[in-house]
Design a protein that fits this description.
Elements lengths: L5 H4 L8 E4 L3 E4 L3 E2 L15 H13 L4 E3 L8 H10 L7 E6 L1 E2 L7 E2 L3 H15 L4 E6 L8 H13 L3 E7 L3 H8 L6 E5 L8 H10 L2 E5 L12 H10 L3 H12 L12 H8 L8 H10 L3 H5 L4
Parallel strand pairs: 3-4, 4-5, 5-8, 8-9, 9-10, 10-11
Antiparallel strand pairs: 1-2, 6-7
Length: about 300
């Protein structure tokens, strides 16, 4: 197939299929991550605010119904942009945000799971996103300095108060998910995962067995999988698409609970990423990519 465009394929995200988060929140599996809409170092305003707003509006036009953000992106910038671009929201749009990190400066991230911080972060996200209830509220990191029961207990309180709909976790191990599930249902897990970094394979398998949505952050390995070269480029050449599209198509086929959220700051790359949902990888290509995934240089022709 040739590289897809919105004009020829309508709403490509629809083709990624549907997953129901938490048993009642249906989303198209190809989503959008809004971290890269902010300035350098995930800090401050975007260099081109008009383009950032256009990206968000185009995402919805392309059929994306899951947008992932966090109070720490900017900080606060990403959430404000989402509201500016998309409010009032369509009835099928789910917005997921996260709390549990403070931002002292560009590229700096500090865990903060104190209940008072998580409550303040949730209330701030509600204001910035102009929501009465957040569809999916994720603990950005479990803070080792704070008792797990206190962190999760606060999220449960927020849920009971009607401020959040579902609870998710980020960068966790299977043991931690099981511990949290003794206190409350877990609707989603967001861990680092892509073709060349499958450290969380056991977490993905657990989520698959338990019907928990798995949101792979950095699905393109910070851009390495989009650079071309290697086996990934060979597969892309056979299909007449881009290497990044193959990497995303691989994720979609890898597991029915997979919810990729590739991020970008341009409409052009957004359309390219979303068109990955139109690509079908055959068994031999899946196996080829699977076997070589541990060797990033061979798979993606990485130069750094």
């Amino acid at each position: 197939m040739k590289q897809a465009s919105k004009s020829s394929n309508g709403r490509p995200a629809v083709k990624s299929g549907t997953f129901v988060i938490g048993g009642d929140l249906a989303v198209h599996r190809m989503g959008f991550g809004a971290m890269r809409l902010t300035g350098p170092g995930v800090w401050g305003e975007p260099s081109d605010r008009r383009e950032a707003v256009a990206v968000l509006r185009e995402a919805v036009d392309l059929g994306i119904t899951l947008i992932d953000t966090a109070d720490s992106y900017g900080p606060e910038v990403s959430e404000r942009l989402i509201a500016e671009a998309l409010y009032p929201y369509g009835s099928d749009l789910a917005i997921a945000t996260k709390a549990g990190l403070r931002r002292p400066g560009p590229d700096q991230w500090v865990e903060d799971g104190r209940p008072e911080h998580l409550r303040s972060a949730c209330e701030g996200s509600l204001r910035r996103l102009r929501l009465e209830r957040i569809d999916l509220f994720q603990l950005h990191r479990i803070d080792p300095k704070v008792a797990l029961e206190d962190q999760i207990g606060l999220l449960v309180d927020l849920q009971r108060e009607g401020k959040i709909r579902h609870i998710g976790l980020s960068e966790v191990k299977v043991k931690q998910i099981k511990a949290v599930r003794k206190m409350t249902p877990v609707a989603s897990v967001q861990n680092l995962y892509n073709l060349i970094d499958r450290t969380s394979e056991d977490v993905l398998e657990y989520c698959g067995r338990e019907g928990i949505g798995f949101i792979p952050w950095s699905p393109l390995a910070m851009g390495d999988l989009a650079e071309g070269g290697g086996l990934l480029a060979e597969a892309a050449g056979r299909l007449g698409v881009q290497p990044a599209q193959v990497a995303l198509a691989w994720l979609l086929r890898k597991s029915p609970v997979m919810l990729p959220i590739p991020g970008t700051s341009t409409v052009e790359h957004l359309m390219e990423n979303t068109a990955s949902a139109l690509i079908t990888l055959d068994d031999s290509t899946m196996k080829e990519l699977e076997r070589s995934g541990g060797d990033g240089a061979y798979l993606a022709g990485a130069t750094r």
